[in-house]
Amino acid sequence: EFCRRPNGCGQGGSGSERSRTLGVESCGAVEPECCSAGMPVKKPPKKADKAQEPAAAKTVKHHDEDRQSGWVEPTTVTVKPPEQLPLTDKELETEHTRVLTAKDPVAPKNVVRFSFKERVYKLDASVEQCALHFELEGNLMHRESEDGKRILAEIDAIRIAQERAHEAETMTVHVGEGDAPPGGGAGVSDKKLRNQFNYSERASQTFNNPLRERPTVTEPPPSVGFNSMVTQWEVFDAFTEDIEVKSIAKDKSSQQQQKKPQAGGGEKEEEEETQKESAKEGDIVHSAAMSKSLKVMERMVNQNTYDDIAQDFKYWDDQSDTFKEGEGTLLPLWKFFTDKVRRKHVTALCWNPEYYDLFAVGYGSYDFMKQGSGVICCFSLKNPSHPEYSFTTETGVMCLDFHPQHSSLLAVGCYDGTVMIFDIRNKLNKPIFQSTVKTGKHTDPVWQVCWQEEDLAKNLNFFSISSDGRVTLWTMSKNELQFTDVMELKLAGIANSSGEEAGEETSLVGLAGGMCFDFHRTSEHLFIVGTEEGKIHKCSKAYNSQYLDTYTGHYMSVYAVKWNKFHPRVFLSASADWTVKLWDHSQKLSLMSFDLGNAVGDVAWSPFSASVFGAVTNDGKVHVFDLAENKHEPMCDQKVVRKSKLTHIVFNPKQPLLLVGDDRGGVLCLKLSPNLRKTEVVREKEKEQAAAGAGDTAVKKPPPKKRGAEADAGGAAEAQKILTPTDKEVQKLEQLLGLGDKPQRAAN
């Protein structure tokens, strides 16, 4: 190293070449270390330029300043550890190649495990080579995740609360300083604002209404002075009269009981019930008037609880339907559920024909390996939290139907083949009529029941269909149900053969299993039947051994067949083969077929339009079609339940509502948007409004005047053209389906 001091001698410690410096005279009184050590100092050359002298003077000046400040330039020292190997330059330049692998040198290489498949010990080649040196579990979460949003919301709430508390403290301090006494000091008032969040200081003057006094003078009510004295004999006479009245009433009741014949067990129970009811009448808390009042109060409380849903039911209409042509939506309203029907399937739905807010739900099970008891619940839209009436059955309920005239009678079909009739007005949990083995009950589940008009003897009757191949008529007599087999459903090939051959084959093969049926609206003798094999048969009450016609189009069980409510020749069918088909009963092939992509549980026509129908599928979707808008795709394809299968659908006869039931015991009420409930009358009004709007700008010419005969003929033609809304719906459906002939009011 060389001496690097300013104006130093430039003497090197290693004896190498020295640098040129100015000389020892420039160092001042103090000599450098290298100079004081006796090292020779080179003098400056004699031929030095005069221009270098000022630079030397500056160097000396800086050197003096550095020495006075004590600054010493750092030096580099090489330190070697004592254990370092002394290597030559050649050895240091030699390259040594090292290969890094992912194998753990400490991991075992001969792990043997027992193979249960081969029953031997085998060498396991899969050895964990990962060595964990450091692990730190993080607690970071994404801002857009639900937990992240929740934590950010909590942090914001805490921050806002702290800011508000700080503002309140500052405002309190300012108010205290303002109210402090003039003498000053540390005294601060404890006065706080009443509203510390949105306080605003302002003053206003209000008008005080003048006080008025209005004195009135009323006449005092007339008063009469009355006084009397009660003696012991008067009290005694009053008691004796009361005892005599009670004894006379008791004697009369005992005489009436003696005159009555001895009643059976059922009559005794009825007498006990009447006695209990009479006792309850005396008790105000348990009286009928109190129960009615409590029911009204419960409905009012529920209406307040579900007020937003009630408002949507009454006033909501999807305004986006005005901009979306050919599309509609379903608004979920109430959901009906009770703990009694947990883990049961909704197997039947039916609206009451008299009270349009009341409907019945049947609960059973379509899983035939898990059968249990059945439940019938009658819900009302006014009280979605609890059923109005509920009944239980020994086996699962498969179908039910309200009587169209006597709305309190409910026909029920069960899984064990029993049919029964309940009177929902009756508080007892037992049917008024029930079929038994003696009275010819079905041997398989009853899939559908349907009430019919009264017979000539004014007896109530209904039909039922079962998997045992029987379509049975049940008549309510005084004491029991009387049955008559209207049709035995033979297999399609057997039904077309002769009588003797058909009887032999039927005894060997059996009957076709009936799944559903529906009776014609105008021709009472005509009905259609859907079977397990996928066939649809047109039958008549007059012929119990032969089909009028057979329709082939489905390949799996037919779950529902429904006649159109307006057109007498058109009906729908839904099957497990994922299709819904539209039929004309005068043609053997279907007019239209709709593939819904999943098994169809049920289908139903709308009561307000001939071209609108709905269907439900096992993927939880509700499909609503309007053939007047789109013949190929549904106007609404909406998923309304999660992880459930929809089993049934039914339209409300008056309101734009529909009910759907699932396989978890839930019933959901949906409201149709305006595009899904258009009628032909509404469409004509829209066309007239559009034409009127378009014709406002055009110049209208008055029609030419007709002569007398032409005017009379034209008036008669216009009178003939006036159609009812039902005729308009029928005419529209004929145009859509291409049915050239006029609708047959009576079926062939």
Strand content: 15-25%
- As a percent range, the share of helical residues equals 25-40%
**Oligomer state of the chains in this structure:** single chain
- Integer average pLDDT: 77
| Uncertain segments | 1-43, 45-52, 179-189, 497-503, 715-720, 742-748
Structural class: alpha+beta
Strand order of the largest sheet: 3-30-29-28
Global outline? extended
Roughly how many Å apart are the termini?
128 Å
Major pleated sheet: 4 strands, antiparallel
Overall radius of gyration: 51 Å
* Total E-strand runs: 30
* Continuous helix count: 13
Structure description:
This protein has 748 residues and is α+β, with helices and mostly antiparallel strands. The protein is 25% helix and 23% strand. β8 (397-402) and β9 form a beta hairpin. The longest helix is centred in the N-terminal third of the chain and has 33 residues, at 146-178. It is extended, with a radius of gyration of 51 Å.
Distinctive features:
748 residues; alpha+beta; four-stranded antiparallel sheet; 13 helices; disordered C terminus
Would you summarize the structure shown here?
By secondary structure, the chain is α+β, with helices and mostly antiparallel strands. It contains 13 helices and 30 strands.
Secondary-structure blueprint:
Elements (H helix, E strand, L loop, with lengths): L32 H4 L16 H17 L19 H5 L18 E4 L4 E4 L22 H33 L53 H28 L5 H18 L5 H18 L1 H9 L14 E7 L8 E7 L6 E7 L9 E7 L8 E5 L3 E6 L6 E6 L4 E5 L9 E2 L11 E6 L9 E6 L3 E7 L4 E8 L3 H4 L3 H11 L4 E6 L6 E6 L3 E6 L8 E4 L5 E6 L6 E6 L3 E6 L7 E4 L4 E6 L6 E6 L3 E6 L9 E4 L6 E6 L5 E6 L4 E6 L7 H16 L12 H14 L3 H13 L11
Antiparallel strand pairs: 1-2, 3-30, 4-5, 5-6, 6-7, 8-9, 9-10, 10-11, 12-13, 13-14, 14-15, 16-17, 17-18, 18-19, 20-21, 21-22, 22-23, 24-25, 25-26, 26-27, 28-29, 29-30
